[in-house]
Protein backbone atom coordinates (compact mmCIF):
# COMPACT_ATOMS: atom_id res chain seq x y z
CA UNK A 1 0.00 0.00 0.00
CA UNK A 2 1.00 3.58 -0.51
CA UNK A 3 2.11 5.88 2.29
CA UNK A 4 3.11 9.50 2.34
CA UNK A 5 5.43 11.08 4.89
CA UNK A 6 6.12 14.68 5.81
CA UNK A 7 8.63 16.18 8.17
CA UNK A 8 9.01 17.92 10.38
CA UNK A 9 5.57 17.73 11.98
CA UNK A 10 5.94 21.12 13.64
CA UNK A 11 8.35 23.97 13.05
CA UNK A 12 8.87 27.37 14.66
CA UNK A 13 11.11 29.68 12.67
CA UNK A 14 12.12 33.35 12.93
CA UNK A 15 11.26 35.81 10.18
CA UNK A 16 13.98 35.87 7.54
CA UNK A 17 15.21 32.35 8.17
CA UNK A 18 15.29 29.65 5.46
CA UNK A 19 12.83 26.80 5.18
CA UNK A 20 12.94 23.25 3.90
CA UNK A 21 9.98 20.89 4.20
CA UNK A 22 10.20 17.38 2.85
CA UNK A 23 7.60 14.98 1.52
CA UNK A 24 8.18 11.39 0.40
CA UNK A 25 5.80 8.81 -1.02
CA UNK A 26 6.22 5.05 -0.76
CA UNK A 27 4.57 2.23 -2.65
CA UNK A 28 3.98 3.93 -6.00
CA UNK A 29 5.97 5.12 -8.99
CA UNK A 30 5.79 8.41 -10.88
CA UNK A 31 3.11 9.94 -8.68
CA UNK A 32 1.75 13.42 -9.22
CA UNK A 33 2.78 15.48 -6.20
CA UNK A 34 1.26 18.62 -4.71
CA UNK A 35 2.02 21.21 -2.02
CA UNK A 36 -0.86 23.02 -0.33
CA UNK A 37 -1.03 25.61 2.42
CA UNK A 38 -3.94 26.01 4.80
CA UNK A 39 -4.11 29.19 6.84
CA UNK A 40 -6.09 29.11 10.09
CA UNK A 41 -9.81 28.76 9.32
CA UNK A 42 -9.23 28.86 5.58
CA UNK A 43 -9.42 26.41 2.71
CA UNK A 44 -6.50 24.68 1.07
CA UNK A 45 -4.48 26.75 -1.36
CA UNK A 46 -2.53 24.90 -4.05
CA UNK A 47 1.06 26.15 -4.10
CA UNK A 48 2.92 23.81 -6.45
CA UNK A 49 2.39 20.59 -8.33
CA UNK A 50 4.71 18.21 -10.14
CA UNK A 51 4.02 15.52 -12.72
CA UNK A 52 7.60 14.22 -12.82
CA UNK A 53 11.21 14.64 -11.70
CA UNK A 54 12.35 18.23 -12.16
CA UNK A 55 8.90 19.35 -13.39
CA UNK A 56 7.38 21.99 -11.14
CA UNK A 57 4.35 24.19 -11.77
CA UNK A 58 3.72 27.16 -9.51
CA UNK A 59 0.18 28.27 -8.80
CA UNK A 60 0.70 31.33 -6.66
CA UNK A 61 3.57 33.81 -6.89
CA UNK A 62 5.31 34.04 -3.53
CA UNK A 63 8.65 33.63 -1.81
CA UNK A 64 8.36 29.84 -1.75
CA UNK A 65 9.83 27.36 -4.22
CA UNK A 66 9.53 23.63 -4.78
CA UNK A 67 11.81 20.95 -6.13
CA UNK A 68 11.48 17.29 -7.04
CA UNK A 69 14.96 15.79 -7.02
CA UNK A 70 13.72 12.19 -7.02
CA UNK A 71 10.61 10.44 -8.28
CA UNK A 72 8.97 10.19 -4.86
CA UNK A 73 10.48 13.20 -3.10
CA UNK A 74 9.01 16.68 -3.08
CA UNK A 75 10.62 19.59 -1.24
CA UNK A 76 9.20 22.99 -0.34
CA UNK A 77 11.73 25.74 0.34
CA UNK A 78 12.14 29.38 1.13
CA UNK A 79 15.24 31.54 1.38
CA UNK A 80 13.64 34.06 3.76
CA UNK A 81 10.43 33.36 5.65
CA UNK A 82 7.73 35.98 6.12
CA UNK A 83 5.18 36.16 8.92
CA UNK A 84 2.49 35.40 6.33
CA UNK A 85 4.14 32.05 5.57
CA UNK A 86 2.74 30.63 8.81
CA UNK A 87 0.23 27.87 8.24
CA UNK A 88 -0.40 24.18 7.82
CA UNK A 89 1.54 22.75 4.86
CA UNK A 90 0.18 19.64 3.27
CA UNK A 91 1.75 17.39 0.66
CA UNK A 92 -0.49 15.18 -1.46
CA UNK A 93 -0.09 12.60 -4.19
CA UNK A 94 -2.25 11.06 -6.89
CA UNK A 95 -1.80 8.34 -9.45
CA UNK A 96 -2.91 10.56 -12.31
CA UNK A 97 -3.69 14.22 -12.40
CA UNK A 98 -7.46 13.85 -12.42
CA UNK A 99 -7.67 11.22 -9.74
CA UNK A 100 -8.04 11.25 -5.97
CA UNK A 101 -5.37 13.08 -4.02
CA UNK A 102 -4.14 11.57 -0.77
CA UNK A 103 -2.65 13.83 1.84
CA UNK A 104 0.32 13.49 4.14
CA UNK A 105 0.09 14.31 7.86
CA UNK A 106 1.18 17.92 7.30
CA UNK A 107 3.71 20.32 8.79
CA UNK A 108 2.55 23.09 11.06
CA UNK A 109 4.80 26.14 10.53
CA UNK A 110 4.82 29.15 12.80
CA UNK A 111 6.92 32.12 11.75
CA UNK A 112 7.68 34.57 14.56
CA UNK B 1 -11.23 31.08 -12.15
CA UNK B 2 -12.97 28.83 -9.66
CA UNK B 3 -15.66 29.88 -7.23
CA UNK B 4 -16.76 27.35 -4.63
CA UNK B 5 -19.32 28.11 -1.93
CA UNK B 6 -20.29 26.04 1.08
CA UNK B 7 -21.76 27.02 4.45
CA UNK B 8 -19.28 27.90 7.17
CA UNK B 9 -20.84 25.98 10.03
CA UNK B 10 -23.59 23.47 10.77
CA UNK B 11 -24.73 21.89 14.00
CA UNK B 12 -26.71 18.68 14.39
CA UNK B 13 -27.68 16.15 17.01
CA UNK B 14 -26.20 12.69 17.36
CA UNK B 15 -28.22 10.20 15.29
CA UNK B 16 -29.63 12.89 12.99
CA UNK B 17 -28.98 13.65 9.31
CA UNK B 18 -27.08 16.65 7.99
CA UNK B 19 -26.78 17.83 4.39
CA UNK B 20 -23.84 20.01 3.37
CA UNK B 21 -24.37 21.91 0.14
CA UNK B 22 -21.66 23.03 -2.25
CA UNK B 23 -22.12 25.23 -5.30
CA UNK B 24 -19.38 25.91 -7.78
CA UNK B 25 -18.52 27.86 -10.88
CA UNK B 26 -15.47 26.67 -12.72
CA UNK B 27 -14.05 26.16 -16.18
CA UNK B 28 -12.71 22.81 -17.23
CA UNK B 29 -14.72 20.86 -14.65
CA UNK B 30 -13.81 17.19 -14.39
CA UNK B 31 -15.40 16.08 -11.12
CA UNK B 32 -16.07 16.91 -7.49
CA UNK B 33 -14.48 15.56 -4.33
CA UNK B 34 -15.53 15.60 -0.69
CA UNK B 35 -12.90 15.37 2.03
CA UNK B 36 -13.21 15.17 5.82
CA UNK B 37 -10.73 17.04 7.99
CA UNK B 38 -10.60 16.67 11.76
CA UNK B 39 -9.09 19.57 13.66
CA UNK B 40 -5.31 19.62 13.36
CA UNK B 41 -5.22 16.71 10.94
CA UNK B 42 -4.86 16.21 7.20
CA UNK B 43 -7.93 15.84 4.95
CA UNK B 44 -9.08 12.31 4.19
CA UNK B 45 -10.92 11.29 1.04
CA UNK B 46 -14.67 10.64 1.32
CA UNK B 47 -16.13 10.61 -2.18
CA UNK B 48 -15.68 11.52 -5.82
CA UNK B 49 -18.51 12.33 -8.24
CA UNK B 50 -17.97 12.61 -11.96
CA UNK B 51 -21.45 11.88 -13.30
CA UNK B 52 -24.79 13.30 -12.19
CA UNK B 53 -26.52 11.39 -9.44
CA UNK B 54 -26.11 9.97 -6.00
CA UNK B 55 -23.16 7.91 -4.75
CA UNK B 56 -23.68 6.07 -1.48
CA UNK B 57 -20.97 4.82 0.85
CA UNK B 58 -22.31 3.55 4.11
CA UNK B 59 -23.54 6.47 6.22
CA UNK B 60 -22.21 9.02 3.73
CA UNK B 61 -23.74 9.88 0.35
CA UNK B 62 -22.72 12.47 -2.22
CA UNK B 63 -24.81 13.98 -5.00
CA UNK B 64 -23.78 15.92 -8.09
CA UNK B 65 -25.67 17.97 -10.65
CA UNK B 66 -23.25 19.20 -13.29
CA UNK B 67 -25.83 21.34 -15.07
CA UNK B 68 -26.64 23.21 -11.84
CA UNK B 69 -23.09 23.39 -10.52
CA UNK B 70 -24.31 21.83 -7.31
CA UNK B 71 -23.33 19.02 -4.98
CA UNK B 72 -24.24 17.90 -1.50
CA UNK B 73 -22.78 15.56 1.08
CA UNK B 74 -25.31 13.72 3.21
CA UNK B 75 -24.25 12.37 6.59
CA UNK B 76 -26.71 9.95 8.16
CA UNK B 77 -26.91 8.52 11.68
CA UNK B 78 -24.51 11.16 12.92
CA UNK B 79 -21.90 10.12 15.45
CA UNK B 80 -19.75 12.31 17.68
CA UNK B 81 -16.70 11.35 15.64
CA UNK B 82 -18.29 12.99 12.60
CA UNK B 83 -17.55 16.40 14.12
CA UNK B 84 -15.08 17.77 11.59
CA UNK B 85 -14.65 20.12 8.67
CA UNK B 86 -15.97 18.89 5.31
CA UNK B 87 -14.22 20.22 2.23
CA UNK B 88 -15.76 20.39 -1.22
CA UNK B 89 -13.20 20.40 -4.04
CA UNK B 90 -13.63 20.62 -7.79
CA UNK B 91 -11.18 19.37 -10.37
CA UNK B 92 -10.24 21.70 -13.17
CA UNK B 93 -7.38 21.35 -15.61
CA UNK B 94 -6.30 18.29 -13.62
CA UNK B 95 -5.93 20.26 -10.38
CA UNK B 96 -8.08 20.60 -7.27
CA UNK B 97 -9.65 23.81 -6.03
CA UNK B 98 -11.02 23.64 -2.50
CA UNK B 99 -13.87 25.44 -0.84
CA UNK B 100 -13.26 26.97 2.60
CA UNK B 101 -14.93 23.99 4.29
CA UNK B 102 -18.00 23.45 6.46
CA UNK B 103 -17.44 22.79 10.15
CA UNK B 104 -19.98 20.28 11.43
CA UNK B 105 -20.52 20.02 15.17
CA UNK B 106 -22.38 16.98 16.45
CA UNK B 107 -24.06 17.43 19.83
CA UNK B 108 -25.20 14.66 22.16
Give an account of the 3D structure:
The complex is a heterodimer of chains A (112) and B (108). With 112 residues, chain A is an all-beta fold. Chain A has strands at residues 3-7, 10-13, 19-26, 32-38, 44-52, 55-58, 64-70, 73-78, 87-94, 102-103, 107-111. In chain A, the strands form two sheets. In chain A, strands 2, 4, 5, 6, 9, 10 and 11 form a seven-stranded mixed sheet that branches. In chain A, strands 1-3-8-7 form a four-stranded antiparallel sheet, with no helix packed on it. In chain A, strand 4 and strand 5 (44-52) form a beta hairpin. The model of chain A has no long low-confidence stretch (mean pLDDT 94). With 108 residues, chain B is an all-beta fold. Chain B contains no helices and eleven strands. In chain B, a hairpin with a 6-residue loop joins strand 4 (29-37) and strand 5 (44-49). Chains A and B meet through strand 5 and strand 10 of A and strand 4, strand 5, strand 9 and strand 10 of B.
pLDDT < 50 runs, ≥5 residues of chain A:
none
Number of helix segments of chain A? 0
Provide the helix percentage of chain B.
Answer: under 10%
> Judging from the principal axes of the Cα atoms, what is the shape of chain A?
globular
Structural class by sheet pairing and helices of chain A: mainly beta
Distance between the termini of chain B: 41 Å
Largest interface: A-B, 20 and 21 residues
Portion in strands of chain B: over 45%
Mean pLDDT of chain B: 94
> Assembly state here?
heterodimer
Overall strand count of chain A: 11
Question: Would you tell me the structural class of the helices and strands of chain B?
Answer: mainly beta
Which series of helices and strands of chain A comes N to C? EEEEEEEEEEE
What kind of sheet is the major sheet of chain A? 7 strands, mixed
Rg of Cα set of chain B: 13 Å
* Distance N to C terminus of chain A: 38 Å
How does the overall form of chain B come out from the CA principal axes?
A: globular
If you average the pLDDT of chain A, what whole number results? Answer: 94
Low-pLDDT regions of chain B: none
Percent range for β-strand residues of chain A: over 45%
Amino acid sequence: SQTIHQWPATLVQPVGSPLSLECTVEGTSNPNLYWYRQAAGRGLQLLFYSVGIGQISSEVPQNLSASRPQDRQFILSSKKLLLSDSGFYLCAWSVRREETQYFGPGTRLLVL
Amino acid sequence: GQNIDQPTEMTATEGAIVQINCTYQTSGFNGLFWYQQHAGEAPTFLSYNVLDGLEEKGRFSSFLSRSKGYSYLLLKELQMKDSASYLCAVTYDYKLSFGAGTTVTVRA
